[in-house]
Design goal:
The protein is mostly helical. Helix content is 94%, strand content 0%. Helix 1 packs antiparallel against helix 3 (111-137).
């Protein structure tokens, strides 16, 4: 009978030993899982921040491109108007010269000519401002 008790005690000891072994493994797995979870959280946060920064940068570049295209369209429109103004000025001046044989200061300072000249000068200033804005966007 004594051998049964000894065997039983040995069995108990072995069971206790296995129990401790599995508890250690379980604790190690929990600790490992916790570390992995924290790493995943950290990396997820970093990825989120990096992607948010990329989206913000892309958004800024899209706005800059859009602004640049709008400015270039306006620039082209004004340049075309400048060509029209020069042509209009040339036609009026040439017709006056042909009809009168000269270009007096009185002709060059009359209201219709002055309006054309003022619009041309104004457009030059606007074009210079647009060119500066486009350079800043580049």
């Amino acid at each position: 009978m004594e051998t049964k008790k000894q065997t039983s005690a040995k069995d108990q000891s072995a069971i206790e030993s296995l129990k401790n072994f599995f508890e250690n493994i379980t604790e190690n797995v929990k600790e490992g899982a916790s570390i992995v979870t924290e790493k995943i959280k950290d990396n997820s946060a970093k990825v989120y921040v990096a992607s948010a920064e990329l989206v913000e940068e892309a958004n800024e570049k899209i706005h800059q491109y859009s602004d640049k295209v709008s400015l270039q369209k306006e620039q082209k429109r004004i340049e075309n108007r400048q060509i029209e103004i020069v042509s209009e000025f040339g036609v009026i001046t040439l017709n006056h010269y042909i009809s009168s044989g000269n270009l007096h200061k009185a002709f060059l300072t009359n209201k219709s000519i002055q309006e054309i000249v003022e619009e041309y000068k104004s457009n030059v200033k606007v074009l210079q401002a647009i060119e500066k804005k486009i350079k800043k966007l580049n």
